[in-house]
Structure formats: C-alpha cells, structure tokens
Amino acid sequence: MQAEQPVTSRELPPEVSKKAPVQKGLLVAGAVTLGTLLLVILTPGSLLTKLFIIGSGICSQRPAHSYFFEGQQLPLEARMIGIFGSFALTLVFLWFIGRGRTLRLPPLWITVAALALIGLVAFDGLNATAYDAGWFHFYEPQLVLRIVTGSLSGVGIAILIQPFFNLLVWKLAYPGGSIRRWREFGVAVVIGLAVIVATMSGWGPLFWPLAFLAAIFLANASATSIDL
To answer: Is 173 within 8 Å of 21 (Cβ atoms)?
Structure first.
C-alpha cells in the first residue's frame, strides 16, 4: 500500500478547505504548556492551590461533584476531568497511530458514533440542570454518571475536532480521516474507560497526573481559542 503524501494548502481537497493553515496555534499550545508548568511549579504557594486557581475558570469545583484521592479533591469536577483527560489522551493516541495531521472526519457511521458519545454528556448535563431546577428529570444525577459521560464525550470530541484543528495549525497535512476503522474507535473508547477507572479508583499516585493533565489542557484550550 502506498503511503499517504502530505498536502499543502493548494492541494487540499475542495470539500475540506482552500484556506492556508498556519502553525501559530501549535506554537501557542507549546508555549502555554511550558508556561503553565513553570507557573504551577515555580511560583510561591501550594501546588494544589494553584491548580485549583487554574480550574476555577471553568467549573465551580463543588466537592459533591468531584472525586477525592486520599482526602484531596481534584481541581476539576468529575465531568470536566473526564472530558479534558480523555480528550488529551485520545489526541495522543491519534498521533501514535499516525493521524496527528489528518484533515477529514471519520467514515459516516464512526462519526455518528462519536456524536453519540458527545450526546451522552449533553443529555446527562441537561438532566442534571432540570433536577437542580426542580423540573422533570429522568433520573437523579450521580457522580459516576458525570465521570462516565464526560470521559466518553472527550473521546468523541477529540475524534471530531482533530481535522478542524489541523486546518489551523499545519502547513502540511494528510487527507485521511482521524479514525478509519471500528477497531481504532474501540481503542479510543478504551482510553476513555481508562480515565474513568483511574478517576474512580481514588488511588493516590494517580492524583497528580490527572490534575496536571486537566489543568494543562484547560490552559491550552483557553489560550488557543483566544489566539485563533
């Protein structure tokens, strides 16, 4: 089988885009990652407190909505830990299988499956909102459902957003889909399940990897969206 060749902006298929991508967003992501690590590690104060400050911009950090590891609360609530953790690890998986610069969505039914994963967190979030407001709801919100739906949706979001992100950050890219086979989709789902198990385990050594993973991705997402 002949290996795929990179394409430039002039060679992009018309159904994708003719706009020339730039690498600025990738540089911003790298700078923000390094800056976040230096900020968290080198500045005065408790490491956990600084992670909580980073996380406070996106969620309320309610103890009842969060997981604890040996008495320490994660800096993001369960749903956000799941979304950001699975998203970041799924992107790593896509790079590992050589899809880091792909420009197209997966085949139709895999795209539908990824959308279904995202739909899970949307449904659970709307149900929780209705419960809090005293409206009709299908079930009482549960912490385990927050981490499960959040993690699975993070997988779906990563699969679908990768091609659009690549249009913005790469001058050379590949025309194939981010996920091409159900087996690859299954591996991505297993990654989401691993985030669920790790978060629910409460095992002390996993606290800091989960906390840093979510905080770094959150900082990158905020800075890149503003820059682009």
So the answer is: yes
Category of 45 on φ-ψ map: left (φ > 0), alpha (ψ -120 to 50) or beta? left
Q: Which pLDDT band holds residue 65 (cuts at 50, 70, 90)?
A: very high
Read off the pLDDT of each residue in 90-119 and give the average, rounded to a whole number.
93
Res. 25 pLDDT band, cuts 50 70 90? low
Q: Rounded to two decimals, what is the model's pTM?
A: 0.82
Contacts of 57-65 spanning 24+ positions with Cβ under 8 A: 57/218, 57/222, 58/218, 64/143, 65/143, 65/146
Q: Would you state the structure tokens that stand for residue 211, as one six-digit string? A: 């906390």
What is the chain's mean pLDDT, rounded? 83
Q: Where are the domains of the chain?
A: 18-227
What does the DSSP 8-state code read for residue 106?
P
Among 60, 69, 71, 193, smallest CA distance to 128 is for 60
Strands annotated E in the chain: 68-69, 72-73, 102-104, 174-177
